[in-house]
Design a protein that fits this description.
The chain is an alpha/beta fold. Helix content is 32%, strand content 23%. The protein has 23 helices and 31 strands. A hairpin with a 6-residue loop joins strand 20 and strand 21. Helix 9 runs parallel beside helix 10. It is globular. It binds adenosine-5'-diphosphate (ADP) and zinc ion (2 copies). The site of one zinc ion has 8 residues, from loops.
Length: 745
């Protein structure tokens, strides 16, 4: 007699913009441990990947109507703390749970691939390599690689992260010193055995402030949040490393989140060199396969470290003992499309769920974190002196109105700064110049009819890129040929306005032909290898002047820089964004922090047409630390009831059809206006165009919602979602909610 097949009923969340689960049946008898496994289901004729959310006794649907799901994993592929974090996120950000889950997965798992290692390309020393004396290898990089390989095979990914080129690796292979191997084969055999010591190298002796920080953090039991407020170069990273060591010794793992830009070979080196445990990484320079490998590495358990950018936060890590968020003020922890979360906010939730400690470190903490320290949610730890005895730089504010009209000033370099650059480079010192504007000229216009050349897809003037002989849109990245004839009036003459880094570089090359100049921005540096090459020339002292954008402002140590020039501070002082002063103070402090890192005294020259500006003067006053300014700025926020003393969200719409994008929000707004009055302390703005209404060929509108209480805002947004789900946007209108926006639309 044929026995009846046994089925379980499961509730599944799918990657759909819907706040509901779907019931399916699964052949076999399953318990709750299957929650969090992936299934493949059929929905509306298409094959989709879903996540099991619940195992149920029965369904509200008749059993015969339930469709079958196919199980892809034999167990939860997330982790209990990740489940808690994601379900919090879905409610907090009003983003469907299924979409939160799917965003949390590496792409290959999202696509239904098996949660298993594929090939892991690595390099291993051959017998000849093991016997060879590295001193006899002339090529420095090859010698460095072989030194590493002598200790065991190393993943190609790690070699790349540490800044080694494929060229050098191939040269070692050719010499017969190294061979390509597949590490996946050996991974299966070696379950992470406890290393004799978690440390590979002796750590430096901590200074008293660092010791207090490390001891206080290590003494914490369970969840506790720390704000590590340490001036640039004060040894915050060293504090992380020593706390991590303590965590690893307990058999636990650590998760370190960093801004994308901070993932330099120096960062990786410090972790790879220090620890005897697996160090994995997750960031945008990895292939989909490598991201999955990192996910699997961590899932295996055992003491390990994961370093990554914001999305690494979702990686399952059994026995998580510590989360570090380095440069916690950095805007790149906020995702600005799809699942619009802030990794700092969610990391706090995860740490609580995992019952582990969390360190938020910065020389320039966000006002949100400063407020949390003031009200006792975070324990603040200060590092006020620079490790290694370096002193903080001196500031000089220069009034550009008083500078003579030299050729230099047309590209943003006043005479005084010009002279100081000459003096410092002549002494063999290095100079760092900061300008947050790429390209040659800001825009191109026709002097006969006044036409400004703008991007056809965006309300944005096109930037002149002279080296490439093209115009570029810095919003949608489209490029266009330089015009020959004005399409409006037929003129053949054009003029340019506003300078960018490319033009400053041109001036510097003419003015200081013999000192070596490195421009570091998204145009001149299009790969990690290129960036490394430039940084190497700076490190070796071959180049004396570096000029760049944000890319230069963070994460790099330049011991021989004695002069920092900030070419244009004014754009950050006069902005309609209430966060502009905070970010200007942060940027200025961070850029200044690049000067005088070693034994040499540094100077920072700030050029402005508004030297009377109060914030600017506060920033350059000796002994006024960033933190004091943060307190001032917080007071202003408090008086104006701005975040973090109130809570904001945007309701966003966009479409290729301007009228439809506007109409959708307008209708939603008229429904919401009727309800808004019943929510205490809530204000609902009108529908307005984004500052740049047209972007990527789509028209953008928004409504600002703000409330004095978080729960009131959340309740109102829930009501908004209900209305939206009953009347979803049609055609190509897209709707989104952004909670805790960092940038105003
Ligand atoms: P931050 O992360 O605050 O910018 P780092 O941890 O990178 O600072 O430290 C700055 C420099 O000082 C690094 O070169 C680091 O190796 C060194 N350093 C940090 N702590 C110590 C210490 N206790 N003794 C000696 N050198 C240290
Ligand atoms: Zn014209
Ligand atoms: Zn554009």
């Amino acid at each position: 007699m044929e026995s009846q097949a046994v089925f379980s009923v499961i509730e599944v969340v799918l990657n759909r913009p819907l706040f509901q689960c779907f019931d399916y049946k699964l052949e076999g008898s399953y318990a709750d441990d299957i929650v969090g496994a992936r299934v493949e289901v059929n929905i509306a004729g298409s094959r989709e990947i879903g996540i099991i959310y619940k195992v149920k006794q029965d369904s509200s649907l008749p059993f015969a109507k339930l469709k079958s799901a196919r199980l892809l994993d034999n167990k939860d592929i997330f982790a209990p703390d990740v489940h808690k974090m994601l379900s919090f996120a879905s409610k907090y950000y009003l983003y469907p749970l299924g979409q939160c889950y799917v965003s949390a997965l590496p792409k290959l798992l999202r696509d239904g691939k098996e949660a298993a290692y594929g090939e892991i390309p690595a390099l291993a020393a051959t017998k000849e390599g093991l016997e060879a004396d590295v001193k006899n290898i002339k090529a420095k990089v090859q010698a460095q690689i072989l030194t590493l390989l002598k200790e065991g095979p190393v993943r190609r990914k790690e070699l790349r992260e540490r800044g080694f080129s494929a060229q050098a690796e191939n040269a070692l292979i050719k010499k017969g010193f190294a061979v390509k191997v597949n590490l996946a084969l050996s991974l299966k055999a070696t379950q992470s055995t406890a290393a004799p010591s978690v440390l590979k190298e002796e750590p430096p002796v901590l200074n008293p402030e660092q010791s207090v920080a490390v001891e206080t953090i290590c003494a914490a039991k369970g969840y506790q949040a720390f704000l590590l407020n340490g001036v640039t170069g004060s040894g915050k990273t060293e504090v992380y490393l020593q706390v991590i060591a303590a965590v690893l010794r307990k058999g636990q793992s650590a998760l370190v989140l960093v801004p994308e830009i901070a993932l330099t070979p120096q960062t990786f080196e410090r972790f790879y060199n220090r620890f005897n445990v697996p160090v994995s990484s997750m960031h945008s320079a990895l292939s989909d396969r490598e991201r999955l490998d990192a996910f699997l590495d961590m899932q295996r358990g055992g003491p390990a470290i994961l370093i990554g950018t914001r999305s690494a936060l979702f990686t399952p890590i059994p026995n998580l003992g510590l989360i570090v968020i380095d440069e916690e003020h950095d805007g790149s922890f906020k995702q600005t499309d799809g699942f619009r979360y802030h990794a700092r906010s969610l990391a706090l939730v995860r740490a609580k769920a995992a019952g582990c400690k969390i360190i938020l470190g910065s020389a320039t903490p966000s006002l949100e974190s400063v407020e949390n320290a003031l009200c006792g949610k975070f324990t603040k730890l200060d590092l006020t002196i620079r490790a290694g005895g370096a002193s903080l730089p001196q500031f000089k504010l220069i009034d550009l109105k008083n500078e003579p009209l030299t050729p230099g000033i047309k590209t943003g370099i006043g005479l005084e700064l010009e002279n100081r650059i000459g003096e410092e480079t002549a002494r063999g010192n290095q100079v760092l110049l900061f300008l947050n504007r790429r390209g040659y000229s800001h825009h191109l216009f026709c002097p006969h009819c006044g036409k400004i050349f703008t991007c056809p897809n965006c309300d944005n003037p096109l930037t002149v890129h002279k080296n490439e002989g093209r115009l570029k849109c810095h919003v949608c990245d489209n490029v266009f040929a330089m015009p020959v004839v004005c399409p409006d009036c037929g003129s053949r003459e054009f003029m340019e306005n506003g300078y960018g880094t490319e033009q400053v570089e041109e001036f510097l090359r003419l003015r200081y032909p013999d000192v070596g100049i490195e421009r570091i921005d998204r145009d001149s540096v299009n790969s990690k290898a290129e960036l490394e090459k430039r940084l190497e020339r700076i490190k070796e002292g071959k180049s004396k002047i570096m000029l760049g954008t944000q890319m230069l402002a963070k994460g790099h140590d330049f011991p021989d820089v004695t002069l920092v020039g900030i070419l244009d501070i004014d754009s950050g002082l006069f902005s309609d964004d209430f966060r502009a002063l905070e970010s200007t103070a942060q940027l200025l402090t961070q850029v200044s922090g690049r000067a005088g890192r070693a034994q040499k005294q540094g100077e920072v020259i700030i050029q402005s047409y508004h030297p009377e500006n109060e914030l600017l003067n506060r920033l350059i006053t000796p002994n006024i630390a960033y933190f004091d300014i943060a307190l001032d700025l917080l007071l202003i926020r408090k008086n104006l009831n701005l975040p973090p003393f109130s809570y904001q969200a945007f309701l966003l719409s966009n479409s290729e059809d301007r009228v439809k994008a506007f109409a959708y929000l307008q209708e939603l707004n008229s429904c919401l206006q009727k309800k808004a009055g019943t929510y205490e302390g809530l204000s609902l703005g009108p529908v307005i165009s984004d500052k740049m209404e047209k972007r990527h060929n789509r028209y953008h509108f928004h409504i600002l919602v703000s409330a004095i209480r978080r729960d009131v805002l959340n309740a109102f947004l829930n009501e908004t979602v209900k209305i939206e789900q009953d009347n979803p946007p049609k055609n190509d209108v897209r709707f989104a909610i952004e909670v805790d926006p960092l940038f105003l639309y």
